[in-house]
Fold this sequence. Notes:
Blueprint: H1 2-33, H2 36-50, H3 55-75, H4 82-112, H5 121-156
Helix pairs in contact: 1-2, 1-3, 1-5, 3-4, 4-5
Amino acid sequence: xxxxxxxxxxxxxxxxxxxxxxxxxxxxxxxxxxxxxxxxxxxxxxxxxxxxxxxxxxxxxxxxxxxxxxxxxxxxxxxxxxxxxxxxxxxxxxxxxxxxxxxxxxxxxxxxxxxxxxxxxxxxxxxxxxxxxxxxxxxxxxxxxxxxxxxxxxxxx
Length: 157
């Protein structure tokens, strides 16, 4: 059971790292480059579509798997790979799940509430880009380091 959970977590965390990486490295810059009304409208559309896609089940299933692994690692401290499971699971939960809920989702909601062609749109887009992107970098790095730790746990086991 733990081995299967480790494999699922590693694969799903890797997929999440890749998603966040693409936004950090080129998607947000591309949206900004096309200009505020178009980039903002495109990001609003992305935010609407992503919650109706396979992203959301993967988001929650990977979080649950990492929670289980962190708990298992604490409960079985002496077993091979235990500290990597705790570290990888906890880092994912804090750096991905908590950051998403506390930072990125509220920013997405504020963006959604703003008309891309309205008088407040330009200021909202600047604030969004200045705040959302650094938090996404945190998610990218957290997921990537978590993935490394989960792979290390698999190797140890």
